[in-house]
């Protein structure tokens, strides 16, 4: 067992880190890394009251607006501020990935691996009452948690969520219908649902519809690559209300009508997340062996990451920006994936992340990419690459 780390990491994990060029001492700060919270815009004036309630000082994260550090042992889930949606738990490195995307008012944003949804919520806050957000996740139960979060924080108004495989998802943003608000395209109030148009979203779907959906999914929690996306939630101004059902499922390629911004926060081994690794102490180090160290699983993962990145980029409009991030610190799941992608996509260019000038992180092996790690950044580990789609 390694002495430098506050956790008794097994030798196989230490070897795994070394093989990936990672210094095991990045985990040594372990339990001294702060927790981070983000304050919902508009609730900053309540800072003192929140401090009083959760019984600690909120230390402003100077390099990331809206974020505060709190001691790691402080729990926020039972506080009123949390229950009322004034504060969110979100690691500062995750916030940095969202900032790197530079989503601005009016943008149509795709979040291709969205659950459980911390980044989606932050994106929604940044867009405000403009643009649109499309969240996709392959895992139905995780996306259901994401929907709950959007509703809890009242952030779902311009959002739609699909259970779908992000490697084949092909639906473009509903630009043409966005400002129709609660009217359908022929001017009929959308609350009058016809067999072919969407009324306002309600959690109570007709039994017939639910039965059909259950039969189609065959009991599985995961969407298959060839299944039609399943619309799990849509907000009042997401462009869906009043739309004909056939129009929603029109597919396309992003070059012209695509998304302005795409976030691919890909599935990974989570080895950069100290708190995730810590869970293996209870789950058993054998589980860590299967989930993180198993070379075959890692190969499958890197293929998945490449396919997610490739499809996200396909759905991006020319001139648009994509951020690829993972909370793994291995080169195989980050720089190698980006390099494989770049070699087959001459219209992709790695971009400088302007906001990053004062960020406490290191450069990745590819110039302009960034790496957060617990030791350098006092955050969870995160790799970020920002890509632009050039006209060809
Ligand atoms: C790192 S988590 C995303 C975290 C999320 N962006 C957030 O901020 O809360 C990765 C997600 O990718 C999803 N995922 C895995 N394979 C996928 C696929 N083929 N298509 C879409 N999502 C996938 C997982 O279900 C998981 O929810």
TrEMBL record:
Pfam families listed in its UniProt record: Methyltr_RsmB-F
Domain of life: Eukaryota
Gene Ontology BP terms: RNA methylation
Active site (catalytic residues): 327 (nucleophile)
Keyword 4Fe-4S: no
Keywords, comma-separated and alphabetical: Methyltransferase, RNA-binding, S-adenosyl-L-methionine, Transferase
Domain SAM-dependent MTase RsmB/NOP-type: 22-390
InterPro entries: MeTrfase_RsmB-F_NOP2_cat, MeTrfase_RsmB-F_NOP2_dom, RCMT, RCMT_subfamily_9, SAM-dependent_MTases_sf
Molecular functions per Gene Ontology: RNA binding; RNA methyltransferase activity
SUPFAM superfamilies per record: S-adenosyl-L-methionine-dependent methyltransferases (SSF53335)
Tagged with keyword RNA-binding: yes
UniProt: S-adenosyl-L-methionine binding residues: 137, 165, 265
CDD domains, per database record: AdoMet_MTases
Family membership: Belongs to the class I-like SAM-binding methyltransferase superfamily. RsmB/NOP family.
Protein name: Putative 28S rRNA cytosine-C5-methyltransferase isoform X1
């Amino acid at each position: 067992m390694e002495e430098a780390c506050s956790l008794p990491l097994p030798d196989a994990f230490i070897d795994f880190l070394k093989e990936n060029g990672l210094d095991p001492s990045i985990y040594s700060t372990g339990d001294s890394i702060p927790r981070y919270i983000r304050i919902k815009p508009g609730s900053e004036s309540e800072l003192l009251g929140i401090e009083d309630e959760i019984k600690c000082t909120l230390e402003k994260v100077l390099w990331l607006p809206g974020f505060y550090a709190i001691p790691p042992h402080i729990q926020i889930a039972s506080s009123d501020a949390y229950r009322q949606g004034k504060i969110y738990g979100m690691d500062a490195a995750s916030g940095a990935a969202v900032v790197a995307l530079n989503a601005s008012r009016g943008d149509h944003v795709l979040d291709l691996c969205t659950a459980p949804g911390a980044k989606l919520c932050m994106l929604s806050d940044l867009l405000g009452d403009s643009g649109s957000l499309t969240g996709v996740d392959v895992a139905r139960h995780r996306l259901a948690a994401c929907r709950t979060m959007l509703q809890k924080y009242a952030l779902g108004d311009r959002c739609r969520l699909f259970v779908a495989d992000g490697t084949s998802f092909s639906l473009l943003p509903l630009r043409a219908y966005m400002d129709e608000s609660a009217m359908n395209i022929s001017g009929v109030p959308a609350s009058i649902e016809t067999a072919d148009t969407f009324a306002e979203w309600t959690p109570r779907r007709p039994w017939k519809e639910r039965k059909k959906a259950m039969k189609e999914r065959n009991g599985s929690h995961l969407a298959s690559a060839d299944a039609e996306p399943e619309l799990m939630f849509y907000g009042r101004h997401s462009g869906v209300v009043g739309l004909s059902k056939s129009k929603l499922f029109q597919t396309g390629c992003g070059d012209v009508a695509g998304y302005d911004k795409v976030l691919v926060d890909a599935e990974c081994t989570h080895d950069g997340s100290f708190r995730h690794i810590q869970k293996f102490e209870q789950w058993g180090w054998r589980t860590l062996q299967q989930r993180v160290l198993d070379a075959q699983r890692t190969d499958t993962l890197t293929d998945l990451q490449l396919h997610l990145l490739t499809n996200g980029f396909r759905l991006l409009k020319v001139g648009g920006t994509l951020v690829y991030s993972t909370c793994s610190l291995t080169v195989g799941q980050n720089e190698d994936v980006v390099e494989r992608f770049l070699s087959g996509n001459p219209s992709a260019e790695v971009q400088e992340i302007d906001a990053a000038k004062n960020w406490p992180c290191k450069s990745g092996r590819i110039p302009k990419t960034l790496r957060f790690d617990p030791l350098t950044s006092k955050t969870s580990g995160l790799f970020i690459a920002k890509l632009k789609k050039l006209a060809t």
